[in-house]
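Collaborator request, handled under Task 6.
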Amino acid sequence: QVQVVESGGGLVQTGDSLRLSCAVSGRTLGSYGMSWFRQAPGKEREFVAAISWNGASIRYADSVKGRFTISRDNAKNTMYLQMNSLKPEDTAVYYCATDFRNPVRAGLNPWEYDYWGQGTQVTVSS
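Structure tokens returned to the collaborator:
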């Protein structure tokens, strides 16, 4: 079994920065891709960023490109999302997910991921 735990969310003001972390434990042998998705109240879960197992492939949603940076430390089984220049529209619950089936694809779709965390709330006030 794999456990995925996000942390680092909080309440910030427009223009501030936050760094989210995602720790993976349990059956972590082998490679896996990782991603961040987010879901705002009343909206569908949307893709934010993804990274392949070795960091060679990285993708971002257009809405966060240039402001957010995804990275990972495989020695720590941890992924990060550095979020700069935050906007009120970034307010959402942020979810981390793993992809053990295809570690190189850095997929854009929720169904490409197998294990999910419980999410961490990010609120950006105007």
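The cover message to the collaborator said: "The longest strand covers residues 18-26. The two ends are 40 Å apart (CA to CA). Please let us know whether this matches your experimental observations."
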